[in-house]
Amino acid sequence: MPPETYSKVIDALAEIDYAGKIWYSRYNEPLSDRVILDRIREARSKLHKATLNTFTNGDYVTRDYLEELAKAGLNHIRIMRYPPTSEEYSEEKSWETLFGFAKKLDLPFQKEWGVSLHLEHPTMDIHILGADLKTFVRNRAGSVKTSCSANRTSPCFSPFTNIYIDYNGSVVPCCNVRSDVPEHNEMVMGNVNEQSIFDIFANFRYSLLRYQMRDFGVKVYPCRVCDNNGYSFSGQVPQEETKGV
């Protein structure tokens, strides 16, 4: 993302003294480019009340890098570590992977819910997570072929609470939608290079999507083929064969 695009978004949030969450994570490895330190520092200097977060696979994480992130102003980091993909998943192997990674970082830790560890740090909230990759498979609003077809009729809260900005400034309402997937073009709500983030969030297209996603019933494409029940008010996404799509 060009620095001027990023600064425009941060400055707009500063105008309202934004106190919500910002996540540095979207179809990338956010710690692979150390420019993230500059981006976090800028956000922290302008958004004193915001919570700054990132989600990483941990490949670039070292104890020194963690301290740099903390000094820059990062509040929360989730580190997803997987056991060897050449082996069948087991919880035992996943725990071994997490323990080994935590010891490398040389921070006190304790077990949490599921297969996860919480690392003790004076200023940052650090979690290391393990999971079976098979349970994480989603069709990304129909852009990834999976063995299940979804016919979504349940409500979704994502357009009400979230806003996602791609590197090119394109704004979409959900993490499953990508501005570079042609089939998702109708879900691009605007571009922060051309409009303010507030005008985009309140525009007709965004409002119309929220109106439809608030109730049960057939959804617009690609929402109607989305199988991510994590964004469902009910937690239910029928796994029936989709017709007419």
Spell out the blueprint of helices and strands.
Elements: H1 3-15, E1 21-24, H2 35-46, E2 51-56, H3 63-72, E3 76-80, H4 91-105, E4 109-111, E5 116-119, E6 125-129, H5 158-161, E7 164-165, E8 170-172, E9 190-191, H6 197-201, H7 204-213
Helix pairs in contact: 1-2
Could you describe the 3D structure shown?
Helix content is 28%, strand content 14%. It has 245 residues and is α/β, with parallel strands linked by helices. Strands 1-2-3-6-5-4 form a six-stranded mixed beta sheet, with helices on one face. Helix 1 (3-15) runs parallel beside helix 2. The radius of gyration is 19 Å and the shape is globular.
Question: What's this, in brief?
Answer:
The protein is α/β, with parallel strands linked by helices and about 240 residues long. It has 7 helices and 9 strands, in the order αβαβαβαβββαβββαα. Helices cover about 30% and strands about 15% of the residues.
Structural class: alpha/beta
Query: Beta-strand level of the residues, as a percent range?
Result: 5-15%
Strand order of the largest sheet: 1-2-3-6-5-4
Q: Give the topology string: H per helix, E per strand.
A: HEHEHEHEEEHEEEHH
Mean pLDDT: 87
Largest beta sheet, briefly?
6 strands, mixed
